[in-house]
Amino acid sequence: MRPKPKAAGEFAIQRASTGNAELDSLLGGGFPRGSLILVSGNPGTGKTIFSAGVLYQGARREKENGVYVSFSEDRKAFFENMRTVGLDMEALEEEGRFKFLEMFATTREGMGKVAGELLETIRATGARRLVVDSYSAMAQAIGTDYEGRQVLHTVLGKIVRNLGCTTLVICEQPTGEDRIGDGSEEFVADGVLNLKHTIPRELEIRKMRGTKLWTRAVTYTIDNGFRVLTTELRSPAQIKRWEPIPDTNGLVSTGSRDLDAVLGGGLPRGAYVVLESSSEVMIRELRLFTRSLCLNAVNQMRGVLVLPTGGVSAKEIKAAWTPYTTAELFDNFVRIFEQEQPARTGSPSPPPYVVPMTENQGVEDEAQLEESSRRLHAAYRELKARSGNQPVIRNIGYDSMETMYARYPEKLLNEVGFAIATTRAARDITLGLAKPSLGILDKIAGIVDWHLRLTKKNGLLMFQGVKPYTSLYAVDCDVSRGYPETKLSILT
After folding, report:
1. CA-CA distances (angstroms) from residue 207 to 8, 134, 204, 322, 482?
2. How many domains does the chain fold into?
3. Are 492 and 200 in contact (CB under 8 A)?
4. Kind plus residue range of the DSSP H or E element containing 191
5. How far apart are CA 467 and CA 456, in angstroms?
6. 356 part of a folded domain
7. What are the phi and psi torsion angles at 290 (to 5°)?
8. Is residue 2 in a domain?
9. Structure pTM?
10. What Cα–Cα distance (Å) separates residue 75 from each residue in 72, 103, 124, 126, 187?
11. In angstroms, rounded to a whole number, what is the distance separating the alpha carbons of residues 299 and 350?
12. Contact assessment for residue 220 and residue 201, using Cβ atoms and an 8 Å cutoff
C-alpha cells in the first residue's frame, strides 16, 4: 500500500510505528506517540497477537522498550502462545527490552499497589510502549465498570501524559456485540481499533487523534503473526524472462507456485476452468492469473489461444506479455482474436498473432458467425501442430462470446459444450473469464468441474475455489524473480 499524502498538520505529530508498514501508511506513520489506544474485538480476533506485535516490533526495529501487563493470562502461556506466531517475547525479556507483569490476582484494594508497581517498572525499564490486557478483566477485578473507567482515565492517562508511553488497552467484546464496554471508554481514548471476526477478518479504525484517515477499514490475518493485507501490482526493478514451471504428475502449472499448491499441484490436463471475478476486480488484477498461466505455456513453446474480454486489444496483450517472453515466441505460439477491420488500400496485414474475426450484426450474419468459429478452430489446430501436440491454453472472455452470439443463445451453449468436450479429449486447458452479471455463468458453472472466484474488499484482491472448494486467500504480486508472480496468503 502506498503512503497517502499527509495534511499539513500531521507533520507536527510524532508517531510510534505499529510494526506493520501497511497500517502505518494509513495512520500517517503510526500511532500518535504518547497516546492511549483501545484495541477492541470479540474473542479470537487476534487482539493479543496485534498488541504484543506492537511491543515486539517497537523493541526490535525502533529500540523502544515495552511492558505487557496481563490481568488474565500467565507468563508461561503468554510466551508459548506468542512463540507460535513468531514473537519470541521471552528472548526479548532476557535482553532487557521487554517486561511481562502478571496481575490477574488483583483486587480493588490491591489496585493502588498494582499502579505503583506498573509506574516503577516503566521508569526502571525506560519503556516507551505499554499494553494492558485487558480492560475488561481489570474492571472485573476492581469491582465496577465505573471504577475501571476511573483507572483508565487517571492511572493510564497519567502514564500517557507524564511518561510519554504509548499505551494499548485491550478491551473484550462479548461474542456478537459491536459496542465497546458501555461506550464511554471510546471518549477517553485517543484512538480506537476494532478487530472483527468476519470472513475475511477486518480491522476498523474508529478514531485516531490528529490523523487524517483515508480509509477506516482494512483486511488482516493472524497467520504467522498479525498482518494487514493489501494487493499491490508491482513491476520488477529488473525484468527477466519468465521461468516456466514444468508439468508434474500430469498437472499443468498455473505459473504460480502458491496457486499450484492450493489447487493440489496445478490443473489436470483436460480441465475446463471458469474464473469468475466480481465487478470491482480490475483487468490488470485479473491479469495476475491469466498472464501467469499463459506465459508459463508460451515459454515452454506451447500454444495460447485468446478471445479477449471486452475493451482489451491484441496490442495491449502483447505489450503486457512480451517483457517476460520473446517477440518470436509470442508471434509463433499466441493467437488472439480481434475484430476484423475494413480493408483499405495500402493498409498493412494484421500481425501473425492476430486472427481477424468477421463482424456479425444480427440474424442475416449467421454465416459470418460460422466463419469466425471456423477461424478459431483453424487457429487451434495450427497451435497444436506448432507445439508438437502439447496442451493448448484457451483464454476465453465470456462477455465477448455473449456479444458474438447475442442472437443465437442456443449456438453459444453448443459452442461452450463443444469446447468442454474438445478440451477434455485433447487434454488442453481452457480458462473462461466471467463476471457475475453474465447470464451464461450459471449455466456453465453447473457443468464444469473447476469454478474459481476472485473478489475484492478494502482494496484487497481475494481468491477462493468454489469447485473444488478451497480456503479464502489474499492475493498479492511477487516480483522477486524478475516477473509478476501470483502470491497467495491464507486468510485465517
Report:
1. 19, 20, 9, 46, 40
2. 2
3. no
4. strand 191-196
5. 19
6. yes
7. -70, -45
8. no
9. 0.86
10. 10, 10, 20, 21, 31
11. 23
12. yes
Q: CA nearest 251: which of 273, 233, 270? A: 270
CA contacts within 13 A on the Cβ side of 125: 28
**CATH code assigned at 411:** 3.40.50.300
Please state at what angle helix 75-83 crosses helix 47-61, rounded to 10 degrees.
80
Looking from the CA of 181 toward its CB, the CA atoms found within 13 Å total 28
Task: Provide the angle, in degrees to the nearest 10, between the axes of the packed helices 314-321 and 283-298.
Answer: 70
**In a domain? residue 347:** no
Dihedral of CA atoms 75, 77, 79, 85 in degrees, nearest 10, equals -150
Q: Which of 195, 229, 263 marks a domain boundary?
A: 229
Give 99-129 as a 3 state SS string. Answer: EEEECCCCCCCCHHHHHHHHHHHHHHHCCCE
Q: Average pLDDT for consecutive 10-residue bins of the chain (492 residues)? A: 48 86 93 93 93 96 95 92 95 96 69 80 93 79 60 67 87 75 69 93 94 91 91 94 94 97 97 96 95 97 96 94 97 92 65 82 65 89 96 95 85 88 95 92 89 96 97 96 96 86
d(CA 155, CA 145): 15
Task: Write out the three cell numbers for 175.
Answer: 461474542
Query: What is the span of the domain harbouring residue 59?
Result: 8-229
Pairing of strands 485-490, 469-478: antiparallel
Answer whether 222's CB lies under 8 Å from 235's CB: no
